[in-house]
Design a protein that fits this description.
By secondary structure, the chain is of the alpha/beta class. It has a domain of about 190 residues: Vaccinia Virus protein VP39 (Rossmann fold, 3-Layer(aba) Sandwich). About 30% of the residues lie in helices and about 25% in strands. It contains nine helices and ten strands. The strands form two sheets. An eight-stranded mixed beta sheet has the order 1-9-10-8-7-4-5-6, sandwiched between helices. Strands 2-3 form a two-stranded antiparallel sheet.
Length: about 270
Protein backbone atom coordinates (compact mmCIF):
# COMPACT_ATOMS: atom_id res chain seq x y z
CA UNK A 1 0.00 0.00 0.00
CA UNK A 2 1.24 3.49 -0.79
CA UNK A 3 2.73 5.38 2.15
CA UNK A 4 -0.18 7.51 3.52
CA UNK A 5 1.96 10.61 3.86
CA UNK A 6 3.14 10.31 0.28
CA UNK A 7 -0.38 9.59 -0.99
CA UNK A 8 -1.75 12.79 0.55
CA UNK A 9 1.24 15.03 -0.12
CA UNK A 10 2.27 13.50 -3.43
CA UNK A 11 2.14 16.83 -5.19
CA UNK A 12 5.20 17.90 -3.18
CA UNK A 13 7.39 15.45 -5.08
CA UNK A 14 7.50 17.95 -7.94
CA UNK A 15 9.53 20.32 -5.80
CA UNK A 16 13.08 20.29 -7.13
CA UNK A 17 14.77 23.02 -5.12
CA UNK A 18 17.10 22.07 -2.30
CA UNK A 19 15.63 23.04 1.04
CA UNK A 20 18.07 23.87 3.79
CA UNK A 21 15.62 25.03 6.48
CA UNK A 22 16.93 24.49 10.03
CA UNK A 23 20.21 23.30 8.59
CA UNK A 24 18.86 19.98 7.26
CA UNK A 25 19.20 19.29 3.56
CA UNK A 26 17.66 16.47 1.60
CA UNK A 27 19.83 14.03 -0.31
CA UNK A 28 22.13 15.33 -3.00
CA UNK A 29 21.26 14.45 -6.59
CA UNK A 30 23.93 11.73 -6.63
CA UNK A 31 22.63 10.28 -3.35
CA UNK A 32 19.05 10.25 -4.67
CA UNK A 33 20.13 8.51 -7.87
CA UNK A 34 22.02 5.87 -5.88
CA UNK A 35 19.08 5.32 -3.54
CA UNK A 36 16.58 5.15 -6.39
CA UNK A 37 18.68 2.63 -8.31
CA UNK A 38 18.92 0.46 -5.20
CA UNK A 39 15.19 0.67 -4.49
CA UNK A 40 14.43 -0.19 -8.11
CA UNK A 41 16.07 -3.57 -7.52
CA UNK A 42 14.08 -4.23 -4.34
CA UNK A 43 11.36 -6.88 -4.28
CA UNK A 44 9.29 -8.72 -1.69
CA UNK A 45 11.19 -11.87 -0.82
CA UNK A 46 9.34 -13.61 1.97
CA UNK A 47 6.52 -13.53 4.49
CA UNK A 48 7.96 -12.87 7.96
CA UNK A 49 4.78 -13.43 9.96
CA UNK A 50 1.20 -14.44 9.40
CA UNK A 51 -1.87 -14.09 11.59
CA UNK A 52 -4.67 -16.06 9.93
CA UNK A 53 -7.19 -15.16 12.64
CA UNK A 54 -6.61 -11.44 12.09
CA UNK A 55 -6.37 -11.94 8.36
CA UNK A 56 -3.02 -10.18 8.15
CA UNK A 57 0.22 -11.10 6.49
CA UNK A 58 3.40 -9.07 6.99
CA UNK A 59 6.17 -9.06 4.43
CA UNK A 60 9.73 -7.87 4.43
CA UNK A 61 11.25 -6.07 1.49
CA UNK A 62 14.85 -6.89 0.63
CA UNK A 63 17.21 -5.08 -1.73
CA UNK A 64 19.33 -7.24 -4.00
CA UNK A 65 22.05 -4.70 -4.46
CA UNK A 66 24.62 -5.35 -7.17
CA UNK A 67 27.40 -6.12 -6.62
CA UNK A 68 26.39 -7.44 -3.19
CA UNK A 69 26.46 -11.25 -3.04
CA UNK A 70 24.01 -13.82 -1.76
CA UNK A 71 24.83 -13.11 1.89
CA UNK A 72 22.69 -9.95 1.75
CA UNK A 73 19.60 -11.62 0.20
CA UNK A 74 16.82 -12.27 2.76
CA UNK A 75 18.37 -10.27 5.60
CA UNK A 76 18.64 -6.91 3.82
CA UNK A 77 16.55 -4.20 5.47
CA UNK A 78 14.57 -1.77 3.33
CA UNK A 79 15.72 1.35 5.18
CA UNK A 80 19.33 0.55 4.27
CA UNK A 81 18.59 1.52 0.66
CA UNK A 82 18.10 5.17 1.61
CA UNK A 83 20.66 5.31 4.42
CA UNK A 84 23.63 3.36 3.05
CA UNK A 85 24.76 5.94 0.43
CA UNK A 86 25.09 8.58 3.17
CA UNK A 87 26.90 6.20 5.53
CA UNK A 88 29.36 5.30 2.79
CA UNK A 89 29.94 8.98 1.98
CA UNK A 90 30.57 10.01 5.61
CA UNK A 91 32.85 7.15 6.67
CA UNK A 92 36.62 7.61 6.83
CA UNK A 93 38.59 5.58 4.27
CA UNK A 94 39.08 1.83 4.80
CA UNK A 95 40.68 0.08 6.61
CA UNK A 96 39.44 2.29 9.46
CA UNK A 97 38.11 0.52 12.55
CA UNK A 98 34.32 0.84 12.74
CA UNK A 99 31.95 -0.03 15.59
CA UNK A 100 28.49 -1.07 14.36
CA UNK A 101 26.39 -0.27 17.44
CA UNK A 102 23.12 -2.18 17.39
CA UNK A 103 24.28 -4.41 14.55
CA UNK A 104 21.14 -6.58 14.47
CA UNK A 105 21.42 -9.30 11.85
CA UNK A 106 24.84 -8.08 10.69
CA UNK A 107 23.77 -6.60 7.35
CA UNK A 108 25.67 -3.34 7.80
CA UNK A 109 28.69 -5.05 9.41
CA UNK A 110 28.92 -7.32 6.40
CA UNK A 111 28.77 -4.48 3.89
CA UNK A 112 31.45 -2.56 5.78
CA UNK A 113 33.71 -5.60 6.03
CA UNK A 114 33.34 -6.21 2.29
CA UNK A 115 34.68 -2.69 1.71
CA UNK A 116 37.78 -3.44 3.77
CA UNK A 117 36.81 -1.88 7.09
CA UNK A 118 37.83 -3.56 10.35
CA UNK A 119 34.40 -3.99 11.92
CA UNK A 120 33.07 -4.88 15.34
CA UNK A 121 29.31 -5.32 15.76
CA UNK A 122 27.54 -5.22 19.10
CA UNK A 123 23.95 -6.07 20.00
CA UNK A 124 21.89 -7.85 22.62
CA UNK A 125 21.90 -11.67 22.58
CA UNK A 126 18.91 -13.02 20.69
CA UNK A 127 17.64 -14.10 17.27
CA UNK A 128 19.05 -11.07 15.44
CA UNK A 129 22.55 -11.64 16.76
CA UNK A 130 22.31 -15.32 15.83
CA UNK A 131 21.51 -14.20 12.27
CA UNK A 132 24.63 -12.03 12.39
CA UNK A 133 26.72 -15.01 13.47
CA UNK A 134 25.22 -17.13 10.68
CA UNK A 135 25.93 -14.39 8.14
CA UNK A 136 29.52 -14.17 9.40
CA UNK A 137 29.96 -17.93 9.16
CA UNK A 138 28.71 -18.01 5.56
CA UNK A 139 30.61 -14.96 4.31
CA UNK A 140 34.03 -14.64 2.72
CA UNK A 141 35.05 -11.77 5.01
CA UNK A 142 35.37 -11.41 8.76
CA UNK A 143 34.40 -9.07 11.57
CA UNK A 144 34.02 -9.28 15.34
CA UNK A 145 30.69 -9.69 17.15
CA UNK A 146 30.05 -8.72 20.76
CA UNK A 147 26.92 -9.87 22.61
CA UNK A 148 25.97 -7.04 24.93
CA UNK A 149 24.03 -3.84 25.49
CA UNK A 150 25.10 -0.67 23.68
CA UNK A 151 23.84 1.24 26.73
CA UNK A 152 26.26 -0.61 29.00
CA UNK A 153 29.23 -1.08 26.67
CA UNK A 154 32.33 0.35 28.32
CA UNK A 155 35.22 -1.52 26.69
CA UNK A 156 37.60 -0.74 23.84
CA UNK A 157 38.47 2.79 24.95
CA UNK A 158 39.64 4.95 22.03
CA UNK A 159 39.88 1.86 19.81
CA UNK A 160 37.65 2.93 16.91
CA UNK A 161 37.87 5.49 14.13
CA UNK A 162 34.12 5.60 13.53
CA UNK A 163 30.83 4.58 15.07
CA UNK A 164 27.80 3.72 12.93
CA UNK A 165 24.40 3.23 14.57
CA UNK A 166 21.47 2.89 12.17
CA UNK A 167 17.87 3.16 13.44
CA UNK A 168 18.90 2.18 16.99
CA UNK A 169 18.72 5.20 19.31
CA UNK A 170 14.92 5.34 19.10
CA UNK A 171 14.80 1.93 20.84
CA UNK A 172 16.90 2.93 23.86
CA UNK A 173 15.80 3.97 27.35
CA UNK A 174 19.15 5.70 28.04
CA UNK A 175 20.22 7.35 24.80
CA UNK A 176 22.67 9.84 26.34
CA UNK A 177 24.37 7.03 28.28
CA UNK A 178 24.61 5.14 25.00
CA UNK A 179 26.21 8.12 23.24
CA UNK A 180 28.69 8.68 26.08
CA UNK A 181 29.72 5.02 26.00
CA UNK A 182 30.11 5.09 22.25
CA UNK A 183 32.13 8.30 22.41
CA UNK A 184 34.44 6.60 24.89
CA UNK A 185 35.10 3.87 22.32
CA UNK A 186 36.26 6.43 19.72
CA UNK A 187 39.66 7.98 19.48
CA UNK A 188 39.76 11.82 19.60
CA UNK A 189 38.49 13.17 16.30
CA UNK A 190 36.50 9.98 15.66
CA UNK A 191 33.29 10.06 13.60
CA UNK A 192 29.77 9.24 14.80
CA UNK A 193 27.10 8.43 12.19
CA UNK A 194 23.54 8.05 13.46
CA UNK A 195 20.15 7.65 11.84
CA UNK A 196 16.70 7.63 13.42
CA UNK A 197 13.13 8.18 12.20
CA UNK A 198 12.60 11.89 11.61
CA UNK A 199 10.10 14.05 13.49
CA UNK A 200 9.57 17.69 12.69
CA UNK A 201 6.76 20.23 12.85
CA UNK A 202 5.31 19.69 9.36
CA UNK A 203 5.49 15.90 9.57
CA UNK A 204 3.86 15.90 13.00
CA UNK A 205 1.07 18.20 11.78
CA UNK A 206 0.52 15.99 8.72
CA UNK A 207 0.30 12.84 10.87
CA UNK A 208 -2.14 14.59 13.24
CA UNK A 209 -4.31 16.00 10.43
CA UNK A 210 -4.58 12.58 8.83
CA UNK A 211 -5.20 10.74 12.11
CA UNK A 212 -2.20 8.50 11.56
CA UNK A 213 -0.57 8.48 14.98
CA UNK A 214 -1.64 4.88 15.71
CA UNK A 215 -0.22 3.81 12.35
CA UNK A 216 2.94 5.81 13.00
CA UNK A 217 3.66 4.63 16.56
CA UNK A 218 2.49 1.00 16.14
CA UNK A 219 1.78 0.66 19.89
CA UNK A 220 0.68 -2.98 19.64
CA UNK A 221 4.07 -4.11 18.34
CA UNK A 222 6.35 -5.87 20.81
CA UNK A 223 9.26 -3.55 21.51
CA UNK A 224 9.62 -1.04 18.68
CA UNK A 225 10.29 2.67 19.14
CA UNK A 226 10.16 4.37 22.54
CA UNK A 227 11.89 7.68 21.65
CA UNK A 228 10.88 10.06 18.87
CA UNK A 229 13.62 12.43 17.76
CA UNK A 230 13.69 15.83 16.11
CA UNK A 231 16.88 17.55 14.99
CA UNK A 232 16.79 19.73 18.12
CA UNK A 233 16.42 16.88 20.60
CA UNK A 234 18.97 14.66 18.85
CA UNK A 235 21.46 17.51 18.81
CA UNK A 236 20.83 18.08 22.54
CA UNK A 237 21.63 14.41 23.22
CA UNK A 238 24.86 14.67 21.23
CA UNK A 239 25.89 17.82 23.12
CA UNK A 240 25.14 16.13 26.46
CA UNK A 241 27.47 13.31 25.40
CA UNK A 242 30.23 15.76 24.49
CA UNK A 243 29.90 15.27 20.72
CA UNK A 244 29.70 17.93 18.02
CA UNK A 245 27.26 17.60 15.10
CA UNK A 246 28.87 18.74 11.84
CA UNK A 247 26.39 17.62 9.16
CA UNK A 248 22.71 16.70 8.95
CA UNK A 249 20.77 14.93 6.24
CA UNK A 250 17.10 14.05 5.77
CA UNK A 251 16.56 10.85 3.76
CA UNK A 252 13.55 9.12 2.26
CA UNK A 253 10.29 10.61 0.99
CA UNK A 254 10.47 14.36 0.34
CA UNK A 255 11.74 17.38 2.32
CA UNK A 256 10.15 17.78 5.77
CA UNK A 257 8.35 14.44 5.46
CA UNK A 258 11.60 12.49 5.57
CA UNK A 259 11.56 8.92 6.79
CA UNK A 260 14.80 9.36 8.73
CA UNK A 261 17.20 12.02 9.87
CA UNK A 262 20.95 11.37 9.76
CA UNK A 263 23.73 13.16 11.57
CA UNK A 264 27.50 13.09 11.35
CA UNK A 265 29.16 14.11 14.60
CA UNK A 266 32.77 14.32 15.78
CA UNK A 267 34.43 13.52 19.07
CA UNK A 268 36.50 16.60 19.96
CA UNK A 269 40.25 16.17 20.22
CA UNK A 270 39.95 17.40 23.82
CA UNK A 271 36.95 15.32 24.83
CA UNK A 272 35.08 15.81 28.08
CA UNK A 273 31.81 14.04 28.79
Amino acid sequence: MTDPLIRVFGWCVRARSSIEHYGIGHESVSDRIACRATRHQARIVRVISSDKDAGTIRVRRAAEVAPMDKNIQLTQLSHHTIIWPVVEKWLPPAPARVLDAGCGGGQLSYRLAKLGYRVTGIDLPGPSLEKARALLASSDCSWDIIAGSVEEFSGANHAFDALVSIEVIEHLYRPVTFLKNMAGALHPGGIVILSTPYHGWLKNVAISALGLWDWHHQPLDEGNHIKFWSKRTLNAALVAAGLEAVEWRGVGRIPFLWKSIMVKALKPTEYSS
